[in-house]
Amino acid sequence: MLLTGAMVVIVLRLFFLQVIQHDHYVALATEEQVKKLVIPASRGTVYALDGDTPVPLVMNQQVYTLFADPMVVDEPTQVAQVVRDIAGGNLVVDNIEQNLTDGKKQKSMYRVLAKNVTLRQAELIKDKDLKGIGFQRVSKRVYPEGAMAAQTLGFVNNEGKGQYGIEQQLNDRLTGTDGILKSVTDVANVPLSIGKDNIRQEPVNGDNLVLTIDRNIQAKAQEALLAGLQRSGATHGSVLVMDPATGKVLALADFPTYSPADFTNVQDEQVFRNIATTEPYEPGSVLKTFTIATGIDKGVIDANSTFYNTDKIKVEDRTITNALKGVTGTITMQSALNNSLNTGMVTIAQRLGDGERINKTSRDTIYEYFHNRLGLGERTGVEIANEQKGILISPEEEQGNAVRYSNMAFGQGLNVTMMQVASGFSAIINGGTYHSPTVLAGTYDGGKLKPENNSTARPNVISPGASAKAKEMIHQARVGYTNTDTPGYYIGGKTGTSQTLENGEYINSQTVGTYLGFGGTDAEAKYVIMVQVSGKNMNLEGNKHAMPIFTDLSNWMLGYYQLQPRA
Amino acid sequence: MSYTRTATYAARRQQSWGRNQNTARFVSPVKLGPVMHTILVALMILVLGLIYLTQASGSASYDYQASDLDRKINELATKKADLEVENARLSSLESVKNSDVAKAMTQPSTEYVR
Questions:
Q1: What count of CB pairs under 8 Å joins A to B?
Q2: Do A118 and B82 touch (CB under 8 A)?
Q3: Per-domain residue ranges for chain A?
Q4: Helix A464-478 / helix A418-429 crossing angle, nearest 10 deg
Q5: The domain over range A39-207 is classified in CATH as 3.90.1310.10
Q6: How far is Cα A68 from Cα A104, in angstroms, rounded to an integer?
Q7: A481-529 per-position pLDDT tens digit
Q8: Tell me, which fold does domain A213-259+280-560 have in CATH?
Q9: How far is B27 from chain A (nearest CA, A)?
């Protein structure tokens, strides 16, 4: 009877454990036996172009963090000696021996001794068979070209997220998708195939992106910029080089700069920013090329149109004057452009209206060309993070009045980025097609470049005829400086020297120098270059400080492209 | 040809069985009781278990081989990536510019242009 009762109890208990609590124990067993491991996707590499050949700018390298368990290390002196000998350049602690001894006293089980240890170094250390030493594998971004195009690239932070530049803007494409391995494992986490619910999902690596940046042009742009800043004493500068026929950005150089590999050492966040896309400013007289193009396309001026210059012109209650005085009397629009006369540009703005005032028709026309057709005051869509749209006030707004638009005609009263200006300028000199700028040429897969067309074209933003006339006027505006140009080519450009705003007022003690120009053969402009130089409390001028950088780079570009000079 | 019909009686059992067939029934003298049956079943289960374990450990050994191969593949991939990085560093503009070959170069003459 007693035995039967015991049997019943056992059977009931077994029923409870095996049937009623079946799912619970299965879950416990699965948790213990089945491991879910992430197979990390490899972040895409980034290439620049060398002519037509992709060359790596950003790559991945597997490196190791070397750590020690002080409680297990039995010979700290030997460990310290080996680690110093093999990975001395990667140490993150000054005194390894002391660190391990302190760790043991504090009963610490994890002390990082070195970072970014290579596989070879790790193997050499492993061969020494030291107790209490371990390695943790991590992937890091490496930059074979050093600091080249740093502000275009951006960097990847410690959480693996892209910051600034294309690393941030194209983070999703670069990241890829991690794979999953769900499997029964042994104690050493080796996956075993005995489980019936094993899952292995392969990772999808990030795209390997090829930029339109040409590393040779980029290197020369950086070199020319640095040399120009050293000559002028300016502390900040940027250079943008673009292919006007396609909108492809060939170089983007900023100074001060940094090395993306050492982004943690940067003190001033400002150096991370790509000036050409994230820092709108008043570009000054380089925008006179836009006003000229608008006037020609609307048929109100050409190079030989004249006006009477008195070095000042009244707009509403304001009097606008010229920076260069003395070119007075009846002069041509070509002369107004050559001498950068504000009065000439205001005259064009007036002629776009009723000829006397910058009325609503005139303002609408300027807005139509500057904003809608040539892209000022709008994000260009270039694949660089944090692009700013700037400010271009519509004539519909109260502030979009005649005074504002008279200022805009010579490059003040608006905030635009270098990228916007260079893109619009490209349309003016390429026959009238606006190409949205791009830094992305395509992807690199299996040793082949797969091109992508990320630029959209808007044809006929000005007529081909107007484009040709404007281009010739811009060429003539540079004629006075052609002794520095390589002879036999068709070069054009315009200077800009803009005051800066302090507490809402323009000040003369700090000016930004800009130069915007093109170069190539008589048949075709091959490049557009825009240069900007600035410095706190510095008077920097377009012709003195920015133009020499353009000239240096332009002459080099002619040789780089191996263009045939005219006979 | 004459046809003779035998008049001999053939039993029904004899008719249905073949000629010379042994018709004896044998009964084993060994009798297996319930305990023996249980032991035999247990033995069979044990044998089956052993077969399963052999197979399972056999497949596990393949898992270890596969894991080892995976590790080697990863190691080689890492070495390949390291070499690619080194190659890229050595081919970088800065390295080329500072190379001995580049330093030994001289400025070309442009006299022929004039």
A1: 52
A2: yes
A3: 39-207, 213-259+280-560
A4: 110
A5: yes
A6: 11
A7: 778 899 999 999 999 999 888 887 888 889 999 999 999 999 999 999 9
A8: Beta-lactamase (3.40.710)
A9: 39
